[in-house]
Write a structure and sequence with these properties.
The complex is a heterodimer of chains A (about 140) and B (about 850).
Chain A: E1 9-10, E2 20-26, E3 36-40, E4 43-49, E5 63-67, E6 82-86, E7 89-93, E8 100-102, E9 108-110, E10 126-127, E11 129-132, E12 135-140
Chain B: E1 8-13, H1 17-29, E2 35-40, H2 55-63, E3 77-80, E4 85-89, E5 94-97, E6 102-104, E7 107-110, E8 114-116, E9 129-131, H3 135-151, E10 159-163, H4 167-178, E11 182-186, H5 199-211, E12 214-217, E13 222-227, E14 234-239, E15 244-246, E16 249-252, E17 256-258, H6 261-265, E18 276-278, E19 289-291, E20 296-298, E21 301-302, H7 306-320, E22 334-338, E23 341-347, E24 357-363, E25 368-374, E26 381-387, H8 393-396, E27 431-433, E28 438-439, H9 440-448, H10 455-462, H11 472-485, H12 502-512, H13 517-524, H14 545-555, H15 572-576, E29 579-580, E30 586-588, H16 599-611, E31 615-618, E32 624-629, H17 634-643, E33 656-661, H18 675-686, E34 695-700, E35 714-719, E36 722-727, E37 739-745, H19 747-764, H20 771-777, H21 781-790, H22 797-810, H23 814-819, H24 822-825, E38 844-847, E39 850-853, H25 856-861
Parallel strand pairs in B: 1-2, 1-7, 2-3, 7-19, 9-16, 10-11, 10-16, 11-12, 18-20, 33-34, 34-35
Antiparallel strand pairs in B: 4-5, 5-6, 8-17, 13-14, 14-15, 20-21, 22-23, 23-26, 24-25, 25-26, 27-28, 29-30, 30-32, 31-32, 35-36, 36-37, 38-39
Helix pairs in contact in B: 1-7, 9-10, 9-11, 12-14, 19-22
The chains are: A mainly beta (about 140), B alpha/beta (about 850).
């Protein structure tokens, strides 16, 4: 049984109390280190599953959820970014103009000489994630 | 300050190198647009590099192109070619061109240059006697030599002579040799290059030139040129000493004469030996008329070198803009490569200064002669001569007039490793680039004040090394020293996860035989401890190193790019096997090898685009791009394309894109080879090859070059004997023309050469480095590449050949493989909880009968006519 299977609640980013929990998919539906988008009404969320690799330190094996909207292109593509680390922080890079964001906090770590499109905030919204019995649940506001 | 009035009209008569410099300098400095400049050139072309005329044989007009062609598109610049000016009316301030048009000027610059002087030798007007000054001269010379060769039985050589053993004469002799003609240089004086080089240097030069198969006859006066009895063409040279030489072609290069006839007719003062007299500001007697370059008689003489001409151009521009610049005196330093022989001289090369001391180092066996001229105390550098090895020139020339460090000046002349010369610390005012008058201080400033961190940056910032390039080694040294001093480490590290460059990583992965990112980062990632054991905090890569590792693994043949862990390394384009567009949808490009497509194929592409509502456009690479495909649509689109026989076009990859071709000899009246057939063969051979950057190729069926192959990384142009291959071209942000790598190859030789070129590039180029800058960085440049892949100087050709053979053998269509594998297909879903739902945020409008993404403003105003689900049909 992997760390992911623990029924323990895993909360990513700022702990904003979710008003509802939505079932997204099975943990095994996600390819490790490759994102997937999930649709809840009109909210698009990008899910990322980190592998059980020591390089991710305390983040190893976790699932993170951030907004799927890329603030710099205004396209819903964050789930298609490359996952990696910057100074030990797990990150995802926007696939359009390559800004880098923290998966844990959503903070934009690398601007890559760009400003967000349509005055969007540069940082990503993060969502709490729980893995219960191998099913990923996302907490929505 | 912006000038509110109309710009003044500046007229430049003459379209040579100095005119080009003047316009460049003016456009660089005249921010306020105070002048509109009109250049009247007598030749039917824009200014070109006359100094490098011989390169025209190998590289054509592009080889001697000068500066940025965009200069002539500037709205404040007008260039009239083939438009000789016939007269100047100083009172009316007008010039009249050969068509009789009259042009007004506010300020006038004479930059008419020189013409080749023709000595009064009887017979100098015979057919087959040429001068060597313009492209037309060179073209006529080539035509003549080729015609002579055709008229001779196979194997009989064309015999050429050059009268004049100066710089130009040796260039011309080199040109004859390049045309496969015999060449003998006839020099009236005691030795070759008598202006620049002393007797000892002249002797060394003669031996070296002889070694290149060029004959030299010094102290020889030509008394007449005799016609051939039958043809009436020049056939023999008779010398004053009674000697004779049979010839088929003669080039006269005995000197130049300033083209001062316009100035003369306009009543301007003319120097004793010709040239329009100017003061140190380059102004003639008329305050609105200036003269620059070879036509200007400055300090009592005309100067036949480009560097002082450029300085004059800069002086005039400064004056026109209200500055106070004066001509600082001529820098007659010269460095050139004549038929592969290095020759350089500067300062008082003939030791004419009173009590000057000469330090000479000569090695007749190796063909090297080096001399320093020093003040009587043997400390201050007054001049130097270098023949056969101009190595010390770059660092010594800027020390002219300064004291040399150390006790033994001869240390500067010893061959490398034969002694250690003291380090030279150039004073800030030392002139490093004499062509563009850039001092050591300016170059240092480019690093310290303008944050340049490499030679290309410094070149762009200061113009140092942008004309003849002789100073580039010194520029590099200065830049490196300054970077080191500023504590700026020039890192080749890919990113925080790998301290290696891409090339180092490629070798490391290949030699260590690693096949996964996890193994590679564990073994070579930064943070690895000395014993190779994994350190804890080494990270899991990033958007920079992961695609590099993906490319390295793919180039080394590690199966499908979406197999297992490899899939996590791919940028979204490679991951979706399609090209991401701005709205998050993708474009799809099926391969059409050589730009060839059947009517049935076109119909399928059209039907697919119509049924999926895709915007279609013809690409620059002769194929069709379909835009607006959503991730969940990609497999359905490709299933239909693959069923119709199409395969991935790799438009998404850093890999071979297309091989563009003209229609070639199968249809074209002019084609000499089957360019489409060759393009198809090349495209099928190299399809799917992953590389540091995208790769493009082109094949033209004849020298008309309709496939624009020289704008490609690999360009192939048919000749009547086979194929010429050019490498290192590209379009894009920094366009480059490809340079000739080899000529008249058979199809087999061509494939082998391209195999090796590509594999060598794939293995050793930096991340995102295209072939042009890569070639520049290879040791020895293009010559270095040629040595490695054609002469096997590194002994790696067998390995390169084997690697390419593996690539060709293991190719599979990436899309077909995806369609056959449910696990890979699972990646192509829009939402993990709604795999077939379209992204609801997509919105389109119709334009010119097709759909395109709506802009933010259109979304806000609600004029959007179609969401993602509404497919627009034409």
């Amino acid at each position: 049984m992997s760390v992911n299977e623990l029924a323990e609640t895993r909360v990513a980013g700022e702990p904003t109390a979710p008003s509802r929990w939505e079932r997204a998919c099975l943990l095994t539906d996600l390819f490790p280190e490759r994102g997937a988008a999930a649709l809840f009404g009109d909210v698009q969320v990008a899910l990322f599953r980190l592998p059980d690799d020591a390089a991710y330190g305390g983040h190893a094996g976790r699932v993170y959820a951030v907004q799927n909207l890329d603030p710099f292109s205004a396209a819903n593509v964050m789930s298609r970014g490359i996952v990696g680390t910057r100074g030990g922080e797990p990150t995802v890079a926007a696939p359009v103009y390559k800004q880098v964001f923290s998966l844990a906090t959503g903070a934009c770590l690398v601007l890559a000489d760009k400003t967000p499109k349509d005055d969007l905030p540069a940082d990503l919204v993060t969502y709490p994630v729980e893995v219960r019995d191998g099913v990923i649940h996302v907490g929505l506001p | 300050m912006v000038n509110s009035g109309n710009p003044q009209h500046l007229v430049v008569i003459g379209g040579g190198m100095v005119a080009q410099r003047l316009v460049e300098a003016l456009r660089a400095r005249d921010d306020a647009g105070r002048y509109h400049v009109t250049v009247f050139a007598e030749e039917p072309r824009a200014p070109y590099d006359r100094v490098g005329l011989t390169r025209w044989f190998d590289e054509g007009p592009e080889g001697i192109a000068l500066g940025d062609p965009a200069l002539w598109a500037d709205p404040l610049v007008t260039l009239h070619t083939d438009r000789k000016i016939e007269s100047i009316d100083r009172a009316a301030k007008t010039v009249t061109d050969r068509l009789g048009h009259v042009h007004r000027y506010g300020e006038l610059v004479l930059a008419t240059g020189s013409s080749a002087a023709m000595p009064p030798i009887p017979g100098n007007d015979l057919p087959g006697v040429f001068v060597y000054r313009t492209i037309d001269d060179v073209a006529a010379l080539r035509g003549w030599v080729e015609e002579k060769r055709r008229s001779y039985p196979e194997g009989k050589p064309v015999r050429g002579a050059v009268i004049g053993g100066g710089l130009l004469g040796l260039e011309a002799a080199g040109a004859l040799t390049a045309l496969d003609a015999q060449a003998t240089v006839i020099e009236f004086g005691t030795h070759l290059m008598g202006v620049q080089v002393d007797l000892g240097g002249g002797h060394a030069l003669k031996r070296l030139i002889n070694g290149k198969g060029i004959g030299v006859r010094a102290e020889t006066a030509t008394s007449q040129m005799k016609p051939h009895r039958r043809t009436g063409h020049v056939g023999r040279l008779d010398f004053a000493d009674g000697g004779r030489l049979d010839v088929d072609v003669v080039v006269v290069a005995t000197g130049v004469r300033p083209r001062d006839e316009l100035g003369r007719a306009a009543g301007l003062p003319i120097g004793e030996r010709g040239g329009v007299v100017v003061d140190l500001t380059c102004r003639t007697e008329d305050p609105h008329v200036w003269a620059v370059g070879e036509v200007a008689c400055i300090e009592g003489r005309c100067l036949g070198l480009v560097a002082p001409g450029n300085t004059m151009a800069e002086v005039v521009v400064d004056r026109l803009l209200g500055g106070l610049a004066e001509f600082p005196g001529a820098d007659t330093a010269t460095k050139l490569k004549l038929s592969g022989v290095d020759v350089a001289s500067f300062g008082d090369a003939h030791a004419r200064t009173e009590d000057a001391v000469e330090v000479v180092w000569a090695d007749p066996v190796a063909g090297v002669y080096k001399k320093l001229v020093l003040s009587d105390d043997a400390r201050t550098l007054l001049g130097g001569v270098f023949v056969g090895d101009a190595g010390p020139y770059a660092s010594l020339r800027p020390m002219l007039g300064a004291e040399l460090p150390g006790d033994d000046p001869s240390a500067f002349l010893l061959p490398e490793g034969g002694g250690s010369a003291p380090g030279l610390e150039l004073p800030d005012d030392a002139n490093v680039c004499s062509c563009n008058s850039v001092s050591a201080g300016t170059i240092r400033g480019a690093v310290t004040e303008h944050q340049c961190t490499d030679v290309p940056g410094v070149k762009a910032c200061t113009r140092a090394g942008t004309t003849c390039g002789a100073c580039l080694p010194l520029v590099k040294k200065l830049v490196d020293t300054e970077l080191e001093r500023a504590g700026i480490e020039v890192s080749t590290a890919l990113c925080e996860h790998f301290e290696m460059s891409r090339a180092q990583l490629f070798d490391a992965v290949r030699v260590a035989d690693l096949h996964s990112f996890s193994d590679i980062v564990a073994r070579f990632g930064s943070g690895t401890t000395a014993d190779g054991a994994a350190a804890t905090a080494k990270g899991r890569g990033c958007d920079i190193c992961k695609p590099v590792v993906a490319s390295v693994l793919a180039s080394l043949g590690n199966g499908h790019i979406l197999a297992g862990e490899q899939s996590t390394l791919q940028d979204t384009n490679d991951h979706m096997l399609a090209n991401l567009q701005k709205d998050g949808t993708y474009s799809v490009v099926p391969r059409m090898p050589g730009g060839e497509v059947t009517p049935e194929g076109l119909i399928v592409v059209g039907e697919v685009a119509r049924d999926f509502g895709l915007y279609t456009k013809i690409t620059g690479g002769q194929r069709i791009d379909m835009f607006g495909a959503r991730v969940e649509q990609l497999p359905d689109i490709w299933r239909r394309l693959v069923d119709a026989g199409f395969e991935s076009g790799h438009a998404y990859g850093k890999s071979l894109r297309t091989v563009k071709s003209c229609v070639g000899s199968t249809w074209c009246r002019y084609g000499v080879q089957d360019s489409v057939g060759m393009a198809v063969e090349l495209e099928l051979r190299y399809r799917g090859l992953r590389s540091p950057h995208k790769l493009k190729m082109g094949v033209s069926g004849c020298a008309r070059e309709c496939a624009e192959a020289r704008g490609k990384d690999v360009g192939v142009i048919a000749t009547d004997k086979g194929w010429n291959i050019y490498v290192g071209g590209n379009g894009g942000q920094t366009p480059r023309h490809a340079k000739l790598l080899a000529e008249d190859l058979t199809s087999q030789e061509l494939l082998r050469t391209i195999d090796r070129f590509l594999m060598y590039y794939v293995r050793t180029a930096d991340r995102l480095q295209r072939t042009a800058p890569w070639i520049e960085e290879v040791d020895g440049g293009l010559d270095g590449v040629r040595e490695v892949i054609m002469e096997d100087s590194l002994g790696i050709c067998a390995d390169l050949d084997a690697a390419m053979a593996r690539h060709v053998e293991n190719y599979e269509d990436e899309w077909k493989a995806v369609l056959e594998d449910p696990e890979k297909l699972r990646r192509f879903s829009s939402f993990v909880n709604a795999p077939n739902d379209a992204d609801p945020s997509l919105a389109y409008v119709t334009e010119r009968g097709q759909r395109r993404p709506a802009t933010s403003a259109e979304r806000a105003s609600g004029v959007v006519i179609a969401g993602p689900k509404l497919e627009v049909r034409a």
